[in-house]
Automatic annotation (TrEMBL):
<dbReference type="InterPro" id="IPR025943">
    <property type="entry name" value="Sigma_54_int_dom_ATP-bd_2"/>
</dbReference>
<keyword id="KW-0804">Transcription</keyword>
<protein>
    <submittedName>
        <fullName>Sigma 54-interacting transcriptional regulator</fullName>
    </submittedName>
</protein>
<keyword id="KW-0597">Phosphoprotein</keyword>
<dbReference type="InterPro" id="IPR025662">
    <property type="entry name" value="Sigma_54_int_dom_ATP-bd_1"/>
</dbReference>
<dbReference type="GO" id="GO:0005524">
    <property type="term" value="F:ATP binding"/>
</dbReference>
<feature type="domain" description="Sigma-54 factor interaction">
    <location>
        <begin position="338"/>
        <end position="567"/>
    </location>
</feature>
<keyword id="KW-0805">Transcription regulation</keyword>
<keyword id="KW-0067">ATP-binding</keyword>
<keyword id="KW-0238">DNA-binding</keyword>
<feature type="domain" description="Response regulatory">
    <location>
        <begin position="4"/>
        <end position="118"/>
    </location>
</feature>
<dbReference type="GO" id="GO:0003677">
    <property type="term" value="F:DNA binding"/>
</dbReference>
<dbReference type="InterPro" id="IPR009057">
    <property type="entry name" value="Homeodomain-like_sf"/>
</dbReference>
<dbReference type="InterPro" id="IPR003593">
    <property type="entry name" value="AAA+_ATPase"/>
</dbReference>
<dbReference type="GO" id="GO:0006355">
    <property type="term" value="P:regulation of DNA-templated transcription"/>
</dbReference>
<dbReference type="InterPro" id="IPR001789">
    <property type="entry name" value="Sig_transdc_resp-reg_receiver"/>
</dbReference>
<feature type="modified residue" description="4-aspartylphosphate">
    <location>
        <position position="54"/>
    </location>
</feature>
């Protein structure tokens, strides 16, 4: 094995221990540094493949500072720290490490961490290179395409979105022709839906006249520039057209990149995002590597052709489009049932579609009811395993004594009640995907066994010691903060790193309120069809309340509310809210004065109480078992019972 390891550790004895262990395991140690300064010197002499990095070091700079440099240089690193407090974990996590070991550590833990780090690093590099190659091919094809600038930019937008995320993309020829407005752009309005924005459209949206727009484009950036937090006001040389776009489309960050093919006609690409701090030097580096493939628009004449196929955007059509009933996340068939086009949702779907083709494990994070299972299913459907099985396991719903046989299978007579030999979920998922929901609930001894499956790709039946090979992709999900669980010792760090190769976080509904209307219409339509009732629209008061509410149960709760409204609707009038949305809105808007922490806690308790009652009703009072309230809430039945006792919910509430 020719993997070079640099050890950055200020405690001499620990550093020496590390050196001995990693050397014995076959790694090469390139040096030991006690401070960031020394580590930098080492780095210059010989670039390591992996760095073991203590957080607290000699000098002012910490291991976390050095980690940022390692990230920029694409060197894998594993933290080793005595301090595993939540705060340190959070800060360390922001540097996206490849592993984390807590002192005192066992030799085995260290070697597993190094192994995982190397696997992750190799894997991410390989997949990055594979993906970049594909992107180059797609861009080359677009360059030779005979279509005009609008069509070309749309094609570029589609292929480049997963690599450089944007909510608005624009291109302009440079130098411009006597201040003529030649900028063209696309606003992202769905997973794979873009709306053209040219001069006419911009005039309509902003109400500005042609000459005003032309005047705005006089100054332009000539170098690659990124702004992570808005555009500095009155910065000389900044094209204030960008400010106009920022204001019109609620944008937050921006990256401009000029491409000069050497024919005297440059083209500027601009990427805009509604999120802050999106663009990094990595994006510029990628664009630099792609430069030869980005010349598609660097031909003066293609901007001169006026396209007759353009549809004129009407005054508030951007907004109108956003609120149309069938506002699905895009025409992409796999995501057609995932409703919404908020940029936070689209960013998660981008990640899902990027990771889908590979066998990489995925960890889906997000509150209960945010659509984790739906996204897991989409990843499966988009993968080469789509024709194989998709097996769901709710780790919270299986009694601890049965988990092992449920996951890995059992031999006949392995335990009382095992009258037949039975395949476990892993074997059932062979050739397909296993979805381990609520992975945070898995007992520690099962976590060890799961890690083994991930490493060895084989399972052992309960009652047998003969391993069987399985070919399964793992998608895990949790609504818990796994780092906190790791810090508390209830979740294994090595398993966390193995699963966390590719995390996707789904936003809670309260952070994507612009999707509420589309979701409401979607579920109203769905339940009206299901219950054979005509859909007569939604009462304005209901919509107002839905917007004002903060949806602790997310989309599942919204779905339940709609189901109830449709069931109780007389089929002749608009849908109305048949239960108050836990009273939160009224209470928050004044009924209860929020003056103390106790008031806040009271509202929280009431919200939780009402939500649990609504789920219990849906489960017809059943707490345990398939479709029981505990399963729907994704918590243990015992946890639900103690919550009910605490909140004073009696079984006779129905
Ligand atoms: N974007 C969406 N569009 C339409 N329906 C959705 C969307 N997201 C979630 N749903 C629906 O909401 C319900 C909850 O979704 P799902 O079970 O995928 O959430 P989850 O995050 O896995 O929840 P839990 O953590 O409780 O398991 C399901 O009925 C699902 O079909």
């Amino acid at each position: 094995m020719d993997i070079n390891v640099l050890i950055v550790e200020d405690e001499f004895l620990v550093a020496n221990d590390l050196r001995v262990i990693v050397k014995q395991a076959g790694y090469k140690v390139t040096g030991i540094a006690a401070s960031v300064e020394e580590a930098n010197e080492n780095l210059q002499k010989q670039k390591p493949d992996l760095v073991l990095l203590d957080i607290r070091l000699k000098g002012i700079l910490s291991g976390i500072d050095f980690a940022r440099k390692l990230r920029a240089e694409n060197i894998a690193f594993v933290y080793i720290s005595a301090n595993s407090s939540q705060k340190v974990l959070e800060e360390a996590k922001s540097t996206d490490p490849y592993g984390f070991i807590v002192k005192p550590f066992r030799e085995k833990d260290l070697l597993v961490a190094l192994d995982i780090a190397w696997y992750r690093h190799q894997h991410s590099l390989e997949s990055k290179l594979r993906q970049e190659e594909l992107l180059q091919k797609q861009l080359t094809k677009i360059t030779t395409d005979p279509s005009g600038a609008e069509q070309k930019l749309l094609k570029i937008a589609r292929v480049i979105q997963p690599y450089i995320p944007f909510d608005f993309i624009a291109s302009k020829p440079w130098p411009d022709n006597a201040g003529q407005f030649k900028d063209i752009g696309y606003l992202r309005i769905g997973f794979d839906e873009y709306q053209f924005i040219g001069e006419k459209e911009l005039m309509t949206i902003t109400g500005f006249k042609k000459d005003v727009l032309s005047a705005l484009i006089k100054n332009s950036d000539t170098n690659a520039i990124l702004y992570s937090d808005g555009i500095p006001k009155q910065k000389p040389g900044i094209n204030s057209l960008q400010q106009l776009l920022f204001d019109s489309f609620k944008l937050e960050s921006y990256l401009v990149f000029p491409v000069d093919p050497g024919n005297g006609q440059m083209v500027h690409y601009a990427f805009y995002s509604r999120k802050q701090d999106v663009y990094t030097r990595d994006h510029i580096a990628l664009l630099n590597r792609l430069k030869p493939y980005l010349v598609a628009l660097a031909e003066k004449k293609i901007y001169d052709e006026t396209s007759s196929t353009l549809t004129l955007v009407q005054p508030d059509s951007v907004n109108k489009k956003n609120s149309e009933a069938a506002n699905y996340s895009g025409s992409h068939p796999t995501f057609k049932n995932i409703i919404g086009n908020h940029h936070l949702l689209l960013a998660s779907l981008d990640l899902a579609s990027q990771v889908a083709p590979y066998n990489t494990s995925v960890l889906i994070l997000g509150e209960s009811g945010t659509g984790k299972e739906k996204v897991a299913h989409s990843i499966h459907s988009l993968s080469p395993r789509a024709s194989g099985p998709f097996i769901k396991v709710n780790c919270a719903a299986i009694p601890p004594t049965l988990i092992e046989s449920e996951l890995f299978g059992h031999e006949k007579g392995a335990f009382t009640g095992a009258t037949e030999k039975r395949k476990g979920k892993f074997e059932q998922a062979d050739g397909g995907t296993i979805f381990l929901d609520e992975i945070g609930e898995l007992p520690l001894d099962m976590q060890v066994k799961l890690l083994r499956v991930l490493q060895e790709k084989e399972v052992e039946y309960v009652g047998s010691s003969a391993p069987r090979k399985v070919n399964v992709r793992i998608i895990a999900a949790t609504n818990r903060n796994l780092e906190k669980e790791v810090a508390n010792g209830t979740f294994r760090l090595d398993l966390y790193y193995r699963l966390n190769v590719f995390p996707i976080t789904l936003p809670p509904l309260r952070e994507r309120k612009s999707d509420i209307e589309a979701l409401t219409l979607y579920f109203a339509d769905k339940f009206c069809k299901e219950f054979h009732k005509p859909f007569m629209g939604i009462a304005a008061t209901m919509m107002d309340e839905m917007y004002a509410y903060n949806w602790p149960g997310n989309i599942r709760e919204l779905e339940n509310v709609l189901e109830q409204s449709v069931i109780l609707n007389d089929g002749r009038s608009n849908l109305e809210l048949k239960r108050s949305l836990t009273g939160t809105r009224n209470e928050l808007s004044g009924k209860v004065n929020i003056e103390t922490l106790e008031d806040v806690k009271h509202i929280q308790r009431e919200t939780e109480r009402d939500y649990i009652i609504s789920i219990l009703k849906k489960a017809k009072g059943r707490i345990r078992g398939v479709n029981g309230a505990a399963e729907l809430l994704n918590i243990k039945p015992t946890t639900l019972e103690s919550k009910m006792a605490k909140l004073g919910i009696k079984k006779d509430f129905l």
